[in-house]
Design brief:
Helix content: 10-25%
Structural class: alpha+beta
InterPro entries: F-box-assoc_dom_typ1, F-box-assoc_interact_dom, F-box-like_dom_sf, F-box_dom, SCF_F-box_component
Strand content: 35-45%
CATH class of the largest domain: Mainly Beta
CATH superfamily of the largest domain: Kelch-type beta propeller
CATH architecture of the largest domain: 6 Propeller
Protein name: F-box/kelch-repeat protein At3g23880 isoform X1
CATH topology of the largest domain: Neuraminidase
Number of helices: 8
């Protein structure tokens, strides 16, 4: 019997036991046969220490936990307890078989449509069934951009003026107040979602850039989920302009790929913001082939900062920084060849790397799997879905924006 079935049997048996008339328990049994029957029915009732119940429940999917909250008051209290939520989060994010990891996909249809499926199914099954997601903001013909994910929360930019924090597993969301920036044509906002481990607060950083003003600084505001408000912090470093819309969260910092004009040329740099100290620093990239590659972009794999670029339009190269902030820890993770006649498309991602090294990425609106062991490609089939505009991997957790 599965752990879910076992717990369901325990919970509902205990619930049924409480409904028995206390007077019936106290009255003498009319016969030995009835007594034996009562004893036999009570024998299967197991007793589990609370510590063991916590260990079992903390390993279950969020969908099951939401159902089990109705079993009894003690389970409702346990599943809602902050300590239990943190334990479940820790186990879910560090699952070696990525059983709690899902990928959200934005369809290339005229209407804004989102689907979600388990990452493990893409790697292990020839065909994957996706769930339709009910996006909280009703904007049928406007595609909101996915900023990133953090501990089960997804962040979407809405018209570049506010953000939505949403946990699809919990079906809970919160919309931020407007940024109130003086927007005009040519302006853009680069966002980033992260977690401040010191204050235990989820934060969204908005870098507002106005290229029309040559000497203007990029104004920066931070949204706190705890206070549901924006506040100004120190401007983005002078002379640096983020060109990648979403900052990547690693080790308590948000990281943007940025340009730094030097004379008639422009240098590619990584600007890092410490979410707690709210201070900036430059993270040095690896020693890569600058002359023969496209402008790099940043990503996150296995909680490590990554750097991706096209090399001579023949390969897609991925570097990974094993120890954040240590330049010597950069190593070349994989070099993925382009298929013949790549036209104008480039790979997007990568979104995930399996235990055996297979890489999940996107090419020409389709998800693909690359196996570096034999240089082979696989094309996961997704039922009732084709053509993806954007994607983001997230973890099923109990983190809710409504509880902060």
């Amino acid at each position: 019997m599965s752990s879910q079935g076992y717990l369901r049997r325990i919970g509902f048996t205990r619930k049924r036991e409480r409904l028995i008339n206390p007077m019936d328990r106290a009255s003498p049994l009319p016969s030995t046969s009835v007594q034996n029957q009562t004893v036999s029915e009570s024998l299967p009732l197991p007793f589990l220490p609370n510590e063991l119940v916590v260990e079992i429940l903390s390993r279950l999917p969020v969908k099951s936990l939401l159902q089990f909250r109705c079993v009894c008051k003690s389970w409702m209290s346990l599943i809602s307890d902050p300590y239990f939520m943190k334990k479940h989060l820790h186990l879910s994010t560090r699952s070696t078989h990525f059983t709690h990891h899902r990928i959200i996909l934005s369809a290339t249809t005229a209407e804004f449509h989102l689907k979600s499926c388990y990452v493990s199914s893409l790697f292990n099954s020839p065909s994957t069934v996706c769930d339709d997601l009910n996006y909280p903001v009703k904007n049928k013909f406007r595609h909101d951009g996915i900023i990133g994910s953090c501990n089960g929360l997804l962040c979407f930019a809405i018209k570049g003026d506010c953000v939505l924090l949403w946990n699809p597993s919990m079906r809970a969301s919160k919309k931020s107040p407007p940024l109130g920036n003086n927007w005009r044509p040519g302006c853009f906002t680069a966002f980033g979602l992260g977690y401040d481990h010191v204050t235990e607060d989820y934060k969204v950083v908005a870098v507002f850039c106005d290229p029309n003003e040559i000497y203007s600084e990029c104004k920066v505001k931070v949204y706190s989920m705890a206070t549901n408000s924006w506040r100004k912090i120190q401007d983005f470093p002078h002379g640096f302009l983020p060109y990648q819309n979403s900052g990547k969260f690693v080790s308590g910092t948000l990281n943007w790929a940025a340009n730094h004009p030097v004379g008639s040329t422009s240098l590619w740099v990584i600007v890092s913001l410490d979410l707690h100290k709210e201070t900036y620093r430059e993270v040095l990239p690896p020693d890569y082939e600058k002359e023969d590659c496209s402008t790099p972009t940043l990503g996150v794999l296995q909680e490590c900062l990554c750097m991706n670029y096209d090399y001579k339009k023949t390969h897609f190269v991925v570097w990974m920084m094993k120890d954040y902030g240590i330049r010597e820890s950069w190593f070349k993770l994989v070099s993925i060849p382009y298929l013949p006649n790549p036209e104008d498309f480039s790979y997007s991602g990568p979104y995930y790397v399996s235990e055996n090294g297979e890489v999940l990425l996107m090419f020409e609106f389709d998800l693909i799997l690359y196996d570096p062991r034999d240089n082979s490609f696989k094309y996961p089939r997704i039922e009732s879905g084709k053509g993806w505009f954007d994607a983001e991997v997230y973890v099923e957790t109990l983190v809710s924006p409504m509880k902060h």
